[in-house]
Amino acid sequence: MAPLRPLLCTLALALTGAATAFTAAPIHQPHQRTQRLSPLNQSGSDKGGGSAIATPKTKQVTTTVTKQKQKSEQKKKFKPSDPDVRKEEDFEDAPMFRLYLIGDESYEQEHVVNRVCEIVEDCSEDDAATLFKSAYQTGEAFLGKYPKEIAETYAEQLTRSDPIIYADVRDDKLDS
C-alpha cells in the first residue's frame, strides 16, 4: 500500500496543479486573528448596522435622447349635419359575358330545371322551365349576362352535372 500512496499523490498534483493540496505532512498556517464583519459583533465607530455598500470603480454615463414629435396633420372633423364629402372614383365595369344553355334531345326537363335553379342564383323554376323549352326548340337559350369568372363557373358547374348539361360562355361585345 505504501508504493501506491506516493503515486496517487503525484498524479493528483499533476492534475490539479496545486503543490500543497496533497502532501503527507499536515499544513500549518500561522494563527491570524480574523476580524468578523457581523453587525452583531462589530466594535467600531460605525454603528449603522452593517458594512458599507461598495461603489463601482467605473463611471456610468447616462445619456438621454429626445426625439421631436412630428406635427401630424389633423383631420377635419365633420359635424353630423355636414355631408360626407367623397371623391368620385372612376371604376371600370368588369367585362360582361353571356351564358347560354345548349339544347340537347337527351335532356330530362326535371333534371335540367333543378340543376339550373341550384347553380344560377337569379333563376327561378318557372324561368328555368321556359329556358329549357327554348333551348330544346331553338338549340340554345340565353341564361344571363355575368362577369367572366362567374359565367365560366356557372358553365363549368352545369357541365359537371350527371347527366351532363351543356352550357356556353360568349363575350357580350362580340354578340352585340
Structure, described:
The protein is α+β, with helices and mostly antiparallel strands and 176 residues long. It has helices at 4-16, 109-119, 125-138, 148-159, 172-175, and strands spanning 96-102, 140-147, 167-171. The protein has a three-stranded antiparallel β-sheet with strand order 2-1-3. Helix 2 packs across helix 3 (125-138). The mean pLDDT is 77.
How much helix, percentage-wise, in residues?
25-40%
**Total DSSP E strands:** 3
**Overall pLDDT level:** 77
Whole-Å distance between the termini?
117 Å
Strand content is 5-15%
Order of helices and strands: HEHHEHEH
Count the DSSP helices: 5
Low-confidence stretches: none
Structural class by sheet pairing and helices: alpha+beta
Shape, principal axes of CA atoms: elongated
Largest sheet: 3 strands, antiparallel
Rg calculated over all Cα atoms:
49 Å
Features:
alpha+beta; single chain; 31% helix; 176 residues; 3 strands; three-stranded antiparallel beta sheet
Quick take:
This protein has 176 residues and is of the alpha+beta class. It is 31% helix and 11% strand.
Helix-strand blueprint:
Elements: H1 4-16, E1 96-102, H2 109-119, H3 125-138, E2 140-147, H4 148-159, E3 167-171, H5 172-175
Antiparallel strand pairs: 1-2, 1-3
